[in-house]
Each structure stands twice: as structure tokens, then as C-alpha cells.
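Hi W.,

Here's what went into the run:
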Amino acid sequence: MNVFFYDKSFEGMLTCLFEAYRLKDFPEQLLVTDTPIPLFCDHHYTIVTEETKSDRVWKHVTSKLSAMGTKEVANCWLSELPDIDILLFRYLRKTIDSPRSIETNFADPDVLLLSKIYKKVSYEAHRLIQFARFQKTADGTYFAPLEPQFNTLPLAIHHFSDRFADEKFLIYDMKRHYGFYYDMKSITEVTLTDEEERIKNGQLRTEYADKDESIYQQLWRSYYQTIAIKERLNPRKQRQDMPVRYWKYLTEMK
Amino acid sequence: MKADVFDKLKILAEAAKYDVSCSSSGTVRSNQKGGVGNTVGGIGVCHSFAADGRCISLLKIMLTNFCIYDCAYCINRRSNDRPRATFSVSELVDLTMEFYRRNYIEGLFLSSGVVRNPDYTMERLVKVAKDLRTVHRFNGYIHLKSIPGASSELIREAGLYADLLSVNIEIPNEQSLQRLAPEKTFKSIFQPMQFIRQHAIESSEERKHFRSAPRFAPAGQSTQMIVGATPENDSDILKLSSALYTQHTMRRVYYSGYISVNTYDKRLPALKQPPLVRENRLYQADWLMRFYHFKVNEIVDDAYPNLDLEIDPKLAWALRHPEIFPVDINTADYEMILRIPGIGVKSATLICSSRRFSRLGFYELKKIGVVMKKAQYFIVCRELPAHTINELKPSGVRSLLVPTVKRKIDDGQLELDFDAT
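Here's what came out:
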């Protein structure tokens, strides 16, 4: 078995691909630098990320993939799944080796798995759009805390900056501790230093919230309860479409 | 914010909740300069799901639940003793904007009871939409109900502000409608539909010549029928929806299982539970017509006027036509693959694109997402054919696929208690 050690970055993965072709030796596992060498390891290499190499690989790969395929590769990386790097490695290797596009060959397990992960990541980005709940802060900024399963904030932020172009807002990933702030002109990446102090149970603490915020939250909650038809209760369907892991930040589920 | 807004919201949401439509799809429009909101199109965005499992996409509300009509199936009928309320335009607009900015909703679905006359009511609905669009620069989704009997001019104005217009048919047969809603006629319902269609055609003509000409209800129109309140069979309902779908602005027909809201009215059946299974089968049949290239007379005909409640309409069709099967996955065309039970639009597309690389077998099909439990009796693929519908006979396949009902424990039966001493 061959193992490559690298720095777990996207560019690093592309550099691994470059080096593998240079060495004519393809890894079965990609591991982060400084992890112990696994048992039954024949060769192991430590790959140093180099931008010139990764750029070359990316340029070649994008010329072989369709726009959709490029998006698929880039978005799947955001899933941050433990084995996503070696999967993408194998997928890109097949893309490079195959004389024609492999993107639609769903009988290939790697292509099918990647398309499934892509679907999951896209769903998660869509759920961000569905389930983000903004709370108005005392200074008029709208604030939405969330904990997406995958790192999909970058995929959803442009939807919000288009929709709420005339207000300042902050969408914040509580799990990865970063967010995007929009100031009616541009989007900047920010990190809050005092998360705990400002937010409790997914809610802004009252001293930071706008004075009318709790009224609108109550109105929404009462609307939410009224709109359900008692004769047709179906909690299973409700949980299917709105999994419980999102409830923490949903105003209506408080 | 006045305290009575709480009560009004409760009363008017309660009055509006039996409207099924919640779609926020059909229009793709990005924000304009200085405005707020956009619409995403595609599958729309559901922002929440209520305890009954239905999605909440738009703020579904009535402007008022006062009504001059006395339709037997409606909760807001004039003779019902219920709390009544009316929103002022500014209250409703304010509520919509505040909810929208908090990402609770995709937009507004506004309906109303009929007060004074249809035109007066329609005018007030249009006023809300106009305020949202022009004063608040609201660019999100607006779904307006067109009141039966409203004039062509008002509907034209409504379509300039709204994305989707709808007129509810409710009762799929004219005689039944006469019996349950004597103040309404089929004409008063179909005429607004026709106005919408005319204006949409006019607007698309205009837009061919002038790109800046306003769009008229870009998401088209929808309608709704109540299922189970009147004796009409599934064939009547589906034939009507099929006819409606041939009109090019009609996007969706919704089916609503009848809930006995006015139990005292003897013209209506007293149902213990809404007919949810029948409603589900109707939606499945609707999907077959819209996405699976089925004709209505393939789904229901004079021999089978009602849909089978135990199995889905596509499987029922396949069991009636064993001569077409088994279908070879690796050679059959897309239309034929779509007709195999257990294969949906997504799997069919995946099959058609994957088989260019290699012949597909059971394992690949399963991985692609085909429901092999159903599909196995109707296909041949790379492997040797298993038992197909031709060997097992339709009745055999049916008995294998009908969900087994758990035996009910008889409460009336005495049980021996072996532990007793």
C-alpha cells in the first residue's frame, strides 16, 4: 500500500495528484502530515503543497471536466468528509486517464458516490437558505446563527446578499466559528470573539436584540402553530423535511 | 404594533389554512437596485414545516374572513358563528416585510372572503400587492387569489404585481357545485381563469416586441379541488385536471382531501378522517400526467374509474399491461424506462446516461436508486432474467407488492392469562 502525507488542503490534494503522476506511484490513502505510518505500508511520501503544481493540475482538470463537473469537485471538497480527499483523487485520476468524460458514468462507484455527496452538499446549502433565521440586533444588523452539517456557508451567502441587499447582516457558522458579514456593499469573512456572551441557545441575548424582535418572534410562533391542520397531523413527515438537528436555531421550534 | 394584530393573525391564518398551495417556484428574479427580495425558481424554498407535515413557504393568510357566500364546504361561510377579523393594508404589509427580512417566509399568499362584491374584494387584494411592490420595493414572491366573478381589468392589475394567480375550482362537477355553493357557478370560476390566460398571452406577445413590457403573473396560475366531499370519482377529477393542464398557463392542480369542517350540514358526507390515501393517489396520478408522459385515459378509464388505493397508479397501469413487459434496461428508450414501476425521472435519466459506458446489471441499478423490489418483475438487464410479470402473472406480482396489513388484535376476544395462579 502507498501513502501520501500532505496538509489536507485542496491545493495539497492537487499537488499529490501531480506528484503521483511524476513518481508513477499512486497512493491508496491520503493522510495528514505527522500521523503515524499505517501498517503494511510499502512506500510513503510527504508532499509539500506547491501552488505552481496545483495550478497546473487544476487547469488541466478543468479543461477536461464540464462546468458542472468542476462545480461538483469544488463543492464536494466543502463536505469535509474524512475520505473525500482520496475519493476526489481517484475521480480526478480517472478524469485525466479517460479519453472521454466519465462524469455521466454512474455505473462507476466513484462517480456515483461523488454525485451523491454533491447532492448532499447542495441540499445542505439549500437548507441553509430554508432554515436560516435572522434576528434583528439593537443596531439594526440582522444576525443568523447556524450549524450546517457541511461547510456550505460560502455556497449560500450570495443568495442572501442578493435578497437582502438593502440591509446589513451576518450569517455565522457556530460549529466552524466563522461567518460572513454583509455591509450593503461587500461580503467579508469574520470571526466573533464573544460568541458565548452574545448568544444563548441559538438566541441573541435580550440586551443585544432589537426591542421589537421578541414580538415578531412570538407572532411567527403563533402563526406557525395555527397553520397546522389538526386532522392531518404528521410529525414523521415534519421531521423528514425539517430534521431535528436544525431545530436549535429555528424560531418557531422554541 | 398593536396587540390585536396577534388575534387577527391567529383568526386569519386559521381561516386560510385549508388552501393547499404553497409553491414559491416558477419565477426566477434577482433583486433590483434599492429593493428587497428575490425569487429562486427551481423547486422553490420551503422555510418551515408545520406539524401536519405541510411546508410553509409563503405567509398564507386572508385579508378578511368575512364572506357574503354560504358555501357548504367552507369554514368561513356566512352562516358559521366564528370570530371574524380584517387586516388593514398597512398591518399586513408590515407583517410580511418583517417576516421576510427574518427569512421566515418566501413571500405572501393572500386570499380573502368576499365582502360586498367580488370587484371590491379583488381591489383590496390588489392594493396590498401594489403597496408591497411599489412602496416597499418588495421583490419576493406574491401569490394572489383571484376572486370568482372579478373583472378582467382588476385581474390584469393583479397579474402585474403577483407571481402566481389562482382560482379555486373546489368542486369538480357543476351540479355538485350548484348543490353546495348556490351562489357560485362554473362560469364565475372559469371566467377569471380565462382572463388570466388571455392577459398572459397578451403580455408574452408584447414582450416579444418590447423587452421592457411588464410580465403578467410569470409563475402562471394554479387551482385546487376538494376530494371526497362530493360523489365524483377519480376519473372525473383527473379528466378535469388533464383538460386544465392543456391550457398553457396552468401550472398546478392541487387536491385537498375533504375535512368535515361543517359537520352540521347534511349535504356533505360526515367523514371521520380526511381521505388522505385517495388524495395521495391523485397526486401520484397528477405526477404521471405531468412528468411521466402518461395520458389521462391510461391512468383511469371506464373500466377503472377509480384509482387503486392499495397500489400506486403506475404499478396499477403496469399490471393492466403485462404485454409490454419485461423492458430491457439497456436498450429501451427513455419514455419506456419511465413507465417501469420503481423507476422515477431521476433514475431514468441516470440509466440513459450510464448505459453508454457499460451494460447495466441489478447491482448498478440498485446503486443508482431504482426501487428493485418493484422494478425486478418488469425488467431484463445484464443478468439472466429473474421471474418477471409474464411468469408470475399480474395477480402474482400484485400479491407480492401489496403492503401486508398487520393483523389487528381483536379487543373483544378473551385472553388466557397463563401467569395467573
